[in-house]
Amino acid sequence: MHKINALFMAVRTVSIKTGQVSKTWKMSKITTIPKKTGVTSDPQNYRQISIESCLEKLILFNIRMNNILNIDKVK
To answer: What is each CA distance from 40 to 31, 45, 48, in whole angstroms?
Structure first.
């Protein structure tokens, strides 16, 4: 786990130092999914969702978990 954490921190640090973010992190794929009720032939019965980069989500999750763990260590 520590190796993964170190990798995420390294990627994040490089991104912050260079001021650059991978283009794939900025891109999302928007797709529609049907609502639970209603006729699927009616466009109003769909909602849009955004599918983002898995690496971006993992880095953000890692940051949140580190913050939570650091808060718990302080208490």
So the answer is: 15, 6, 14
